[in-house]
Design brief:
D-amino Acid Aminotransferase, Chain A, domain 1, nine-stranded mixed sheet, 2 domains, alpha+beta, binds ligand PSZ, globular, D-amino Acid Aminotransferase, Chain A, domain 2
């Protein structure tokens, strides 16, 4: 089943025009929302970010967010999704190809679901990453469909048999190609501030909240590659990767080379939030 605008269709019934600006220019925005046991995690935060992304690029949502949440919940029920994700994208719609906006754009909204398993092995044993230059544009705070910079960086990681590319702009670690990055040094967490150089991750904000409630010192401050490689623990976070330790960067071992104690603590607290969602009655 696919949600197209405000109605559900069979996949074979949905056709997108070749002149949709999402296809032509990547002129649109998206969100990925995790579903645990049939219930969404952080729906309000994802909708808030979607609205913000839309506003920043002057895309109009085709209908109110409250109705969209209802339709997304309908989609989860209709696809009988238990553990997985909702993908939603909104483009500036269909128009004869030209760079500037159409005068009366009609946004295209598409959403569908996919089953997902939690990456338990990676969350316990860690992943390897490379560092690479952050070649993306200067509005990484917008969750834009234009992911070419991210795609090229992730491919570089894959070719190096690594799971993630950690991006460096100038001398500053910004984020991963599809994750936010945290380091831990002598008990203090560091992560890049939420400005135009990173996507302000929903999982990132969960970690910040957990750190505060557990009295773990946290600084939303930029750090450099040297601090990254010299950290006691490094973590990447996202909706699907949750909290995943990075134990090797550029063939250099991070800390003990195993998941560290603060990572484990954060994972335990995050898991409690997941369990709350799983056990919720609605
Ligand atoms: O399935 C996947 O691999 C996913 S689902 C969401 C993401 C990857 N990544 C979102 C993301 C991102 O693309 C960038 C550039 N930075 C940070 C993040 C993390 O954001 P949240 O925590 O909101 O998913």
């Amino acid at each position: 089943m696919i949600l197209l605008q405000d109605k559900l269709f069979q996949r074979s019934e949905v056709h997108i025009d070749i002149e949709d600006r999402g296809f032509q220019f990547g002129d649109g925005i998206y969100e990925v929302i995790r579903v645990y046991n049939g219930k969404s995690f952080g729906m309000a935060e994802h909708m808030e970010r979607l609205e913000r992304s839309a506003k920043e690029i002057q895309i109009h949502l085709p209908y109110p967010i409250e109705l969209l949440v209802e339709r997304l919940n309908d989609l989860v029920r209709a696809t009988n999704l238990k553990d997985g994700q909702i993908y939603i994208q909104i483009t500036r719609g269909v128009f004869e190809r030209m760079h500037h906006f159409p005068i009366h754009p009609q946004s295209t909204l598409v959403a569908y679901t996919k089953e997902t398993v939690r990456p338990i092995d990676k969350m316990e044993n860690g992943i390897s990453a490379i560092t690479t230059e952050d070649i993306r544009w200067l509005r990484c705070d917008i969750k834009s469909l234009n992911l070419l910079g991210n795609v090229l960086c992730k491919q570089q990681a894959k070719e190096a048999n690594c799971e993630e590319a950690i991006l460096i702009r100038g001398n500053t670690v910004t984020e991963g190609s599809s994750t936010n990055v945290f380091i831990i040094k002598e008990g203090t967490l560091f992560t890049h501030p939420a400005n135009n150089y990173i996507l302000n991750g929903i999982t990132r904000n969960e970690i910040i909240q957990i750190a505060k409630s557990e009295y773990l010192p946290i600084k939303e401050e930029a750090f450099d590659k040297e601090m990254l490689l010299d950290a006691d623990e490094v973590i990447v976070t996202s909706t699907t990767m949750e909290i995943t330790p990075v134990t090797m960067i550029n063939d250099h071992q991070i800390g003990s080379g195993e998941r560290g104690p603060i990572t484990k603590k954060l994972q335990m607290k995050f898991n409690e939030k997941v369990e709350e969602v799983q056990n919720a009655t609605n």
